[in-house]
Hints:
binds adenosine-5'-diphosphate
Amino acid sequence: MPLILGCIADDLTGATDLANTLARRGMSVVQTIGVPTPGTALPDAEAIVVALKSRTILAKEAVALSLQACRWLKTAGARQFYFKYCSTFDSTDQGNIGPVADALVEELDAGLTTVCPAFPETGRTIYLGHLFVGNLLLSDSPMQHHPLTPMKDANLVRVLSRQTRARVDLVPITTVKQGASSISASFGYLTRKLVRYAVVDAIEDEDLMTLGAACAEMKLVTGGSGAAIGLPENFRQAGLIPKRDAVAPLEAVGGLGAVVAGSSSQATMGQVAAFRAQHPALALDPLKLAGNLEREVAAVLDWAKPKLAGGPVLIHAGGTPQAVKAVQDKLGRERAGELVEQALAAIAQGLVAAGVRRLVVAGGETSGAVVQGLGLKALQIGPQIDPGVPACLAIGTPRMALALKSGNFGQEDFFMKALDMLR
Ligand code: ADP
């Protein structure tokens, strides 16, 4: 089974989200945690998603990592490439979407590429270049308060133009609705105008399918997970992949269950509240972590371990925007985030050592830290739990099932639903 699509995702839950999208449309998908080191044994797959943790690191480092991933995928035989970022375009004026996309375009000699974070299934739509979250402009949504990448501008052409010197322009919804050949014609026109990035409107899945068809010959496609939904059909029509039914269920793992949540996104806070009402839960205090991280982690594990046999437990950080801001004002935004991530990664390690084999993680950065802490190298992608979040099985050791959830994803009962599905 030859590799067809090589994907680079800027965080771990974004990667699983993309892997889920491709798997649901009939591709066999493996997700790697970071760029595989030489000698890493991976099952054959038609799509490989390399999950980086490059969304909020320095732009220079994000570029270096992304290029390393791109070169690995090239060597592995990928013929088309996908750069995946968040459906809320999480970034700052320094990047990292612009600088990474610039580097990939140059590495692949790709010419024009798309920019389309739309994911209608979860309410992310783009109209005249403006990104909406549900019925709110991105800049009016809770994303304006994100701890690491506060999004205060919804105009994607403007946002991306601050991150790159290359030209950015728009393919409006009227063109998209006219079909793939109109989008292609628009791509041709923009290429002649020396535009590198075409922000493409999309308000429903059909628009993304149309966009996918228009991207059949594009070397590099960039977008959220949604913009990938049309690509498998291109490969099928080209005879590169067979027609397949739904994703096969994962092998059962059983074992104890736990949830760690580092996200303060609105959806996660609702899930934390719903879980707390029925199961043991403990909130981390970042200021105490700053005092003595090891002691706090040990105390949390002492609290959690005796409870595990009776059912799943939750350890969470997060809080209201005001509470998070108060902590950030005292510790600095980066240090606060790092402390919480380090603590949750150490807690997850302790939980797995205590027999947890079904682990739900909430938060993109948090998932990256936890999976790195657990030393996981690759994941097999199973059926979807909620839009954007598949059940995953760790390839190698420890043999365990995971759900890695971007902060804003999932229904209110997500934690219990996921733990049940991972069984
Ligand atoms: P999401 O997917 O919602 O963006 P992430 O895990 O990616 O969630 O990001 C949340 C960030 O906020 C992490 O770096 C986390 O460590 C940090 N964080 C969580 N709780 C707090 C808190 N109470 N104070 C400061 N930072 C926090």
